[in-house]
């Protein structure tokens, strides 16, 4: 029998099973930690879409007519526990989310506008660069029919296109920067 080579550098071995990951997802979901309220002041200033009724003209032109240039808020939450699975070449997660949009009136009253359920699939392929572990995520989202509190209903197809574009332009680059930041030169 051969002896294993001695490591000259410290090393950490970490193993996470699907059970541990799904238990953590269940705990976060049950505790209500998978909720986020997004308002105009929580978005970066350089973000191309500001949360105002004027920005919704593409898919809900009636909002700008009913509430001219009013701020909006989004409430995002998980409808079900996220599901995580390990595949031979990647980690896969399914997120079941909802997004409810509100118009914020000058007296701070929040008027519900629409509720959209969104199921998203995220697959992260592990990468190794030098001594850094990272991942390259791929996203897919499926919005479900929206419940509208305004008439006519928002055009979900245009909202879906905007969502997919936003994920491609901002979601994936953000996830890549969070998952596997580039080492400083």
C-alpha geometry: elongated
Alpha-carbon Rg, integer? 21 Å
| Low-pLDDT stretches | none
The helix/strand order is HEHEEEEEEH
Largest sheet geometry: 7 strands, antiparallel
CATH C-level label:
Alpha Beta
- Tally of individual domains: 1
Strand content: 25-35%
Under CATH, the topology can be stated as Bactericidal permeability-increasing protein, domain 2
Q: What class, by secondary structure content?
A: alpha+beta
Helix content: 10-25%
> How widely separated are the two ends?
43 Å
CATH architecture: Super Roll
Mean pLDDT: 76
> What is the CATH H-level superfamily?
Bactericidal permeability-increasing protein, domain 2
Beta strands, count? 7
Could you outline the blueprint of secondary structure elements for this entry?
Layout (H helix, E strand, L loop, with lengths): L17 H13 L4 E5 L21 H6 L5 E7 L4 E4 L4 E14 L5 E20 L2 E12 L3 E2 L7 H24 L6
Antiparallel strand pairs: 1-2, 2-4, 3-4, 4-5, 5-6, 5-7
What would you note in describing this structure?
With 185 residues, the chain is α+β, with helices and mostly antiparallel strands. It has one domain (35-179): Bactericidal permeability-increasing protein, domain 2. 23% of the residues lie in helices and 35% in strands. It is built from three helices and seven strands; from the N terminus they run αβαββββββα. It has helices spanning 18-30, 61-66, 156-179, and strands at residues 35-39, 72-78, 83-86, 91-104, 110-129, 132-143, 147-148. Strands 1, 2, 3, 4, 5, 6 and 7 form a seven-stranded antiparallel β-sheet that branches. It is elongated. The model has no long low-confidence stretch (mean pLDDT 76).
């Amino acid at each position: 029998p051969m002896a294993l080579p001695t490591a000259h550098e410290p090393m950490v071995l970490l193993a996470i099973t699907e059970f541990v990951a799904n238990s953590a997802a269940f705990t976060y979901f049950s505790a209500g930690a998978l909720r986020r309220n997004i308002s105009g002041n929580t978005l970066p200033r350089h973000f191309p879409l500001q949360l105002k009724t004027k920005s919704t003209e593409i898919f809900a032109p009636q909002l700008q007519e009913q509430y001219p240039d009013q701020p909006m808020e989004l409430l995002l939450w998980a409808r079900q526990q996220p599901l995580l699975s390990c595949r031979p070449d990647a980690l896969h997660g399914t997120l079941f989310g909802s997004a409810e949009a509100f118009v914020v009136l000058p007296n701070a009253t929040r008027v519900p506008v629409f509720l959209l359920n969104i199921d998203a699939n995220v697959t992260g392929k592990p990468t190794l660069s030098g001594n850094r572990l990272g991942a390259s995520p791929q996203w897919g989202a499926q919005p479900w029919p929206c419940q509208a509190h305004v008439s006519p209903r928002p055009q979900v197809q245009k909202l879906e296109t905007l969502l997919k574009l936003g994920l491609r332009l901002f979601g994936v680059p953000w996830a890549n920067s969070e998952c596997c930041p580039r080492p400083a030169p």
